[in-house]
Structure formats: C-alpha cells, structure tokens
C-alpha cells in the first residue's frame, strides 16, 4: 500500500486450494472433501510470496483470523501460516449452501431447473435465485453482514495507528465473492463480475482512513524485501 495508506486496516480474502470437485466445476458446500496435492501446492506457493514478516500478509499485523469450518479451508490456513491454531472457525464463512445442487455442475443445475419448469424467462443465476433446498441470497447476505459488522467494530478504533488490525478470512469460491460484494455495499444480485482462483488472495480495505468508505484494493505494490 502507498505510504499514506500504510496504517489503513486490511481484510485478506483467501480461497482454499484446489479440491477434486473444484477442479471438475462441481458445486461444493457441506461436502467436506480435502485439498488435492495440487491444491496444497497452490497454497504453499501463495504462502511463499505473500505470508510472513515484511510480506503482504504479515503475522505481526494480524488482529484476527476467521476460517470456514470445512477441512479444505482450515487446511489452507494451516499450510499458509505453518500453524495449526490461532484462528477462529465460523459458519459465517461456510460456502453458500447449495441444497439440491450439491455436487452438480452449472449446466446440470440449469437442466434440472428447466425440467422442473423453472427459469422460463431467464436462466438460473445463483446471485439472484439462490438454490432449491439451500440458501437464498438474503440468507447468505445475513451471515456475511454479521461478520462484516464484527470486523468493522474491531478495526474502527485503529484506522491510523500501528496496532495489529488486519484480518484474514479463509473461505470458498462463491462465499469470497459474495463477501466482497457485501463489503462494498452491493446486493448479491448486483452485476459485479469477480473471480477468485483456488489458493488466491484478495484484499479489501478503506479509502481515506474512513471506516465508512470500504473499498476493494484493486492494485497494490508489494513490500520491499530490502
């Protein structure tokens, strides 16, 4: 971050590494499957460049780490940090509950809904329609907003001081993107296209050291290693 923003709190959004189902494009929420070997390597590569003293995610600057309950998320944080503790597990970061769509690919979901007589006017869109037997956008919004409130209460007193105030979140493909939308104040149906690769890291922060100006940190300079 620029010198003028050096003390502004940040939230690091991290997607778990690859699993067999994420590799195949299958919707995975409560099914608790492990990382693949490639998934573990993805996270270790991210850790090498982004986690550690003087790096983008500096443990000395962290105030809190929240992790989804699924093993693919907890394992991701443990590989990233090299620790098996120091984080709080929260259902607020569990993946969007897909209900009847668990294990299905997008094309299979759309075919299923068509056979049920749904989506006659427009194709299924999870951000607008949610999941049959699973969560609606409003339900996902509610639990995300609860965590956002907690994070902002934690960071608000430290907008310009040097106290540890950064937060790490380890979650899932849909959930990380939904979190980013809600951080910016958008409804989940708002047409903001976001991508998050397995093992990837996104950064949220604030403009002008102001808790009321949440922002997506679109580009950043990496800390000098000198």
UniProtKB/TrEMBL annotation:
GO biological process, one term: ribose phosphate biosynthetic process
Active site, renumbered: 16 (tele-phosphohistidine intermediate), 95 (proton donor/acceptor)
Domain of life: Eukaryota
Molecular function (Gene Ontology), one example: sedoheptulose-bisphosphatase activity
Family matches, as CDD domains: HP_PGM_like
Coiled coil ranges: none
SUPFAM superfamilies registered for this protein in UniProt: Phosphoglycerate mutase-like
Name of a matching Pfam family: His_Phos_1
Binding residues for substrate: 72, 95-98
Name listed for the protein in its UniProt record: 2,3-bisphosphoglycerate-dependent phosphoglycerate mutase
Organism of provenance: Friedmanniomyces endolithicus
